[in-house]
Amino acid sequence: MKVKYMSLALLAAGSLAVGASATAAPDAGIMLANTCVGCHGPMGNSGGPATPTIAGMATDTFTESMKGYKEGTRPATVMDRIAKGYTEDEIKAMAGYFAKQTFARPGQKVDEAKSKEGKALHKEHCEKCHVEEGKKDEDGSAVLAGQWLPYLQFAMEDFTTGTREMPKKMKSQVEKVQAKGPNALDSLMQFYAGQK
Amino acid sequence: MSFTRRDFIKLSAAASAAGLVGFPMIGRGAAGKTVVVVGGGVGGATAARYIRMFDPTVEVTLVEPNKEYYTCFMSNEVLAGDRTLDSLRFGYDGLAKRGVKVIHKAATAIDAAGKKVTLDGGEALQFDACVVSPGIELKYEGIAGYSAEAAEKMPHAWKAGPQTTLLRKQLEAMPDGGLVVIAAPADPFRCPPGPYERASLVAHYLKQHKPKSKVLILDAKEKFAKQGLFMEGWKKLYGDMIEWVPASKEGKVTKVDVATNTVFAGELENAHKAAVANIIPPQSAGKIAIVSGLADDKGWCPVNPATFESTLHKGVYVIGDACTAPPMPKSAYSANSQAKVCASAVVAALSGTTAPTPAYTNTCYSVIGTDYGISVAGIYKLQEGKLISVEGSGGVSKADAPAWVRKREVAYAHSWFTNIVKDIFG
């Protein structure tokens, strides 16, 4: 008996690795995630110009964002109306799917000089929470590296105008960056957007 | 290291949760099964791709007479001069890469009982399941004097391509101070907010280049999609340049005269002499659905919304504009979403497995002008076999929203276009 199950298990693992020879319909997470990709791009990788990539987003970041949209604590254009259409379990299933996808960074055109300045600002003010130059979503930091520039600008506009609440630590660092000059925040966003 | 049954179950569950596709499970298996998809628009192309993504052992053939598809969505930006028609053109290489066989011929009949699709020229394709996504047929006869030939002078531009170019050229050629008439049909029809986005973007062009001109919408309805938001936007951006006349105020177009470019509306047949006449006639499901007996007496195809299988013919599925799936509107996003539910159901049926609970969505943006966009969203689910809007979700953009909201909705509209065409055509 044990041998039989082992071969079955290897078969299962094998199909996972090559992603072929399946005869089953998709699971619930994929079915739900499929409703997102029309706007957020195949597997959550947005081709821009503004809708954010949600591939590789940590499950907690995803569920917290959706909760914020649902409850109206996070500013939105359309996501508030959409988030209200899904249950907690459905949101968890979607989150599970997108967390497993890889954030693609095909590269965006950015101002190189500004991006260089931004990199220095990132190191000084942001790296502590937005680790690996903003590539890793840790403790709700979200992935910033490779995100579409207009999206980053929209998000920062929400933060700096007070439409969206900033965590305390972020607020103090953003203020410090702003104090460095009128273009400092823009440089920071150019740095994140431009990463490949 | 030894595996127990419990280990296997755990590992299988992990594999199923992690992979894009599931794992080989008990079932007949769909290997070698054949699906024929009729129609290579939004619904058909999405369905063909997703069936292959869900199960690459299924053989999928797409039947589509045209080598290229022009999206109707965003074509109003072409009319405004803000976008090229080329930016709306998509081919089928992405589908071929997924292993979809593409045949550029017209389907002439679908035989559900004999499980075959006949092509122009007589060739027949056998199928285990058939997905039909034929889009719309324009019912020219709904307006006296209108016809396919008349549309060469008074374009409908409701299927993108040469008609879009024709209407754009007419707008460019018309004199300042001229009248643009848009005839909007009664429900149901493709893209419910479309005529009103068109009026907006025509006004956007006229305001810049021919500011003395007017846009007159003659409507066969009493109300229209996103009405409040459109009217708010029109007033804000275009003053009184756009006038909308509902059916009760003599708005319903009954007749056209091609020779004098005149549009007649209402019981009294009021004559409106147009510089440019855009006649959007009533519609039905695409012709192939009608001749194959997939449509009801109203001209649209009834389906079981859990699978999109026709309620008239087993083994044949109808998606997109051609099917009746209220409260989902006849939009591109609806067609795309329905195609995925249908693909999942088809793969499950062919492999003897169970499809997951279907999930449906629609989001539809309308661009009213520079930095001014609005949207409607809907999340749907099955309840006792019927589609319903999830309570408390969806709806239209807020009225009197701040400028940053309207501006972002344009950026998101353009993002939606980029992403959905990739999801459709690969």
Question: Describe it for me?
Answer:
The complex is a heterodimer of chains A (196) and B (426). Chain A has 196 residues and is mainly alpha-helical. Chain A folds into 2 domains: 72 residues, Cytochrome c-like domain (Cytochrome Bc1 Complex, Chain D, domain 2, Orthogonal Bundle), CATH 1.10.760; 82 residues, Cytochrome Bc1 Complex, Chain D, domain 2 (Orthogonal Bundle). Helix content of chain A is 56%, strand content 0%. In chain A, helix 4 packs antiparallel against helix 6, helix 7 packs across helix 11 and helix 9 packs antiparallel against helix 11. The N and C termini of chain A lie far apart (49 Å). With 426 residues, chain B is α/β, with parallel strands linked by helices. Chain B has 10 helices and 26 strands. Chain B has a 5-stranded parallel β-sheet, covered by helices on one side. Chain B has a 4-stranded parallel β-sheet with strand order 13-12-11-17. In chain B, strands 23, 24, 25 and 26 form a 4-stranded antiparallel β-sheet that branches. The N terminus of chain B is likely disordered. The chains are: A mainly alpha (196), B alpha/beta (426).
Concise summary:
The complex is a heterodimer of chains A (196) and B (426). By secondary structure, chain A is mainly alpha-helical. Chain A is built from 11 helices and no strands.
